[in-house]
Amino acid sequence: MTTPHAPPPRRPLLHRLPLTWLGILPFLIFVTLFLILPTMHIVIGAFQTREGGFTLQNLRDLNTGTIPSSYWVSIKISAASAALGCLIGFGMAAAVTFGAVPRWIKAPLMTFSGVASNFAGVPLAFAFLATFGPVGLVTLFLRNNFGIVLSRDLGFNILSFWGLTITYLFFQIPLMILIITPALEGLKREWREAAEVLGATGAQYWRMVALPILFPSLLGTFALLFANAFGAVATAIALTGSGLNIVPIQLFAQIRGDVLGNPNLGYAMAFGMIVITGIANVLYIWLRMRAERWMK
Known about the structure:
This is ABC transporter permease subunit. By secondary structure, the chain is mainly α. The chain is built from 14 helices and no strands.
């Protein structure tokens, strides 16, 4: 009589964990080196003197000079670009989702949005300077063909508040489209049919049904776009240089190593930016969770 073979002993789970986490190891290394460690360096530096001692003076100095006004201008630019990005992006996403435009436009629009939402920094600043700058294509075209000078007749200057806001819209609108489109697609057809059966018009459906359901998603996306614009450093520096009093310009002036610069004050300013963007991102995550519960 043969005895059945005993199953081979299972390896302890401890031996399988390294292989299980091996695929995510590059991501963890990348996040640690380029996100966690630099952030910790900034936070620690905000509470240090030049000699390395602990101090709160750097945070107190945030309320001196032009630093408070730079924060306020940055907040206004971020809020304006986020509001316009939400408004325009929502209209475009609704048009491609509910068939107001040909369906074949949706795939190219989503692809472009995925690329444009990550297009920022020096290339974006150069593109807008080449288009709307003092000798840009649009500027020269309007001047030579219609006698319209943007700065004189329309009061538009690319190196100004609205110039930077419009530049930010290049990546704010695509990001809004990417985020809000799934929420629009989650609106069930039965809800609209039920509203029509009860005698609601299209405007009443959007005002009483669709927008209240989408409100957490819209408000959360606004918070995300605000944080996205507030943390856009390279684009602002490359576009305006020192011509606009915003936090990234002030921060760059402090940490670039000039005689009058104070790197630790720059760390404090960066710490303030981290706090503001962190609050906006936490608000976005919380509202997104509420929106997902509504959609279910």
